[in-house]
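Open question from group meeting: does this chain pack into something compact, or does most of it stay loose? Before anyone orders reagents, we agreed to write out a predicted structure and look at it together. Recording both the input and the output here so the notebook holds the full record.
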Amino acid sequence: MRISGLDQDGEIRVIELFDHPFFVATQYQPERRALEGKRHPLVTAFVNAVGQAAVRQPCAGSSA
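Structure tokens returned:
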């Protein structure tokens, strides 16, 4: 596990697991940006990670 995000006071706000394709725990709400019609970089990174995983390992029963 590693600390990957701090707030302005130096408090831990984001952690990640090294051996997982995409495990991030946060103490903030990235989805709130959607209320302004914007994509949060964390959400975009998650969608990209899912897409890359699907290319490497297609779902069972897929024709890919």
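Observations to bring back to the group:
The first strand starts at residue 2 and ends at 6.
DSSP finds one helix and three strands in the chain.
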